[in-house]
């Protein structure tokens, strides 16, 4: 193992991430399948998660599984893989990422101590990372992965979670954003173009309703009509009525 960690300590913020073989190999795996902007976003999310783990109230009856939190945040956007052949046609990107991370754990020989429960927590942390109504009410590791990821979007403006100017600057200076805002829009719209049906019932579809399938407005009206037709109550509620008529 190299003496220089790819995830250095941040002394001003007092953040130290675990420098384990699994974490190092996971980071290499992420770099292999995603672009540098995504890599830096995932790493920043890990730092924010550990930073906020010290600041928020949580059940401390059990020690926090820091390696699980960091592994989950580092791997959480494998569903944005640059090679689209790696992605499913029928699953949300978060589920793709969770499945890919689980497959990785099953293949490597570094996941000592990752029993079924620990692996399930990791899967939940990735699959639910963009759904606060679930993630915030799960185990501490799942919750912290979520807020670490969201903190990288909100920064100093993250409601309810105190991040100082100096803390935010130290993390972003160490792993720059590299045009994350623009690339995020391209990724969201790209997912809508690649597998529309997986985006109708969640936030991803909102981007193509607003910006089209190419981020510049192309196909937005047709996409919006399809999404509206799918969404409840226009789709779900009439189906309930039809089912009741069948019973008469």
TrEMBL record:
A Pfam family hit: HD
InterPro entries the UniProt entry points to: HD/PDEase_dom, HD_domain
Domain HD span(s) in chain numbering: 39-133
Name assigned to this protein: HD domain-containing protein
């Amino acid at each position: 193992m190299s003496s220089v960690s790819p995830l250095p300590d941040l002394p001003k913020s007092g953040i130290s991430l675990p420098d384990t073989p699994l974490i190092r190999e996971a980071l290499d795996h992420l770099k292999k399948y995603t672009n540098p902007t995504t890599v830096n976003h995932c790493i920043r999310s890990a730092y924010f998660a550990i930073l906020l783990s010290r600041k928020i109230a949580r059940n401390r009856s059990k020690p926090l599984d820091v390696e699980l939190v960091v592994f989950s945040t580092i791997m959480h956007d494998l569903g944005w893989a640059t090679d689209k052949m790696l992605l499913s046609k029928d699953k949300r990107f978060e589920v793709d990422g969770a499945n890919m991370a689980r497959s990785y754990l099953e293949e490597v020989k570094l996941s000592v101590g990752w029993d079924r429960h620990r692996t399930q927590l990791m899967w939940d942390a990735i699959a639910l990372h963009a759904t606060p109504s679930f993630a915030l009410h799960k185990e501490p590791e799942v919750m912290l992965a979520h807020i670490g990821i969201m903190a990288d979007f909100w920064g100093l403006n993250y409601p309810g979670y105190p991040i100082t100017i100096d803390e935010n600057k130290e993390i972003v200076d160490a792993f720059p954003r590299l045009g994350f805002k623009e690339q995020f829009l391209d990724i969201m719209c790209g997912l809508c173009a690649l597998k529309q049906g997986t985006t109708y019932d969640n936030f991803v579809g909102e981007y193509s309703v607003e910006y089209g399938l190419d981020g510049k407005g192309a196909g937005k009206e047709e996409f919006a009509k399809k999404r509206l037709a799918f969404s409840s109550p226009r789709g779900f509620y009439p189906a309930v009525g039809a089912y009741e008529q069948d019973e008469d």
